[in-house]
Amino acid sequence: MSELNLASFLTDFAALPDPRLARRRQYPLLEILLLCVSASLSGYEEWDEIVDFGVAKLAWLRQYLPFAAGIPAHDTLNRVMSRLEPRGFEKCLITWVQRSVTLPRGAHICLDGKRLRRSATARQQQTPHAQGGASAVHLLHAWCDEAGLCLGQYQTPDKANEITALPELLALLDVQGCLLTMDAIGCQKSVTQAIAGAGAEYLLALKGNQLALHAAVKAAFAATAGPEAATTAGEKPAHGRVETRTCRVLPAEQLPAALRGPEWVGLQTLVEVVATRTVTATGVTTTETRHYLSSHQACAAAFQGYVRRHWGIENRLHWVLDVVFGEDHSRKRAGHVAANCAIIRKFVLNLLRAQPESKSLNRKRNLCALSDEYRQKCLGF
């Protein structure tokens, strides 16, 4: 990953529309964004903390931008970030990532949604929208596990709208030749059409939302003796359990023609993964069988890896955002502030992951708080 520099920061963010009246802009938008990114990089997430960071590091910040009016108040930060249009900010994130990293052909990109649980109050979420209720902010993420980077974010009204949001996100990303994986909500004909239209391949989890197709895939594997299989067994107990996974692959021609019609664009392969899990404390063993559809052609061992690595978006992105950045505990709710602060966290996570030191993300954030030089290095300035 190449470094972010001051010129690219100014270029990528200069096009971001400022929602304020020109005559009332005491604090330039670029200064506010640099302050928020630098503070979050150093472990400060609340508005008061960001102001304190800015006051303490004003001389350091003035190396890069004038900050002629000093540091804005916490109310000003909240007001500006709540009015900033998230669509333009999302495009800035995607533009910066695509400028910073070139994905190899065949890269594995995971797509999954995440809800910012406290971006609306419990009462708002329990009240119908017609009566003044509101949903928590829901985001669709694109994650490349090989690069360890969040490639993009797209806000959707709710989880069901991930399907309609996917073409919009793919239109912003360069996924030519990549393999996209998604859970069962993405197992839709329209999704395969959007992915194929972007020049990519897919691996989609298949569950009861495609009842007839799921039944046909299970029947195809049940009727076929010993297709190619790859087995992965856990050598040591992990999280108090030992798991063995067996993957089998069949060509899509095994399905009835009516079920694999042209609407499922590019469908080539059926995949079955049987996971047998034994809890070490109790000795109880359970078995789960999962099925997938894919336009990709590969061996069972390769599909085994794709299925496992898809969960990197949960373990290395969503879990980190909640535990390291406290995203699920954030009560920022005014206007667009929840979605915009989520974008800043993605910038910061990508910057920290780009540092080669063998340190935890928390240690890197602590170093950014303690050392102007290390913070400057992370920013690439």
UniProtKB/TrEMBL annotation:
Domain Transposase IS4-like intervals: 108-351
Record's protein name: ISAs1-like element ISEc26 family transposase
InterPro entries on file: ISAs1_transpos, Transposase_11, Transposase_11-like, YbfD_N
Domain of life from the UniProt record: Bacteria
Domain (H repeat-associated protein N-terminal): residue spans on this chain: 12-97
One Pfam entry name: DDE_Tnp_1
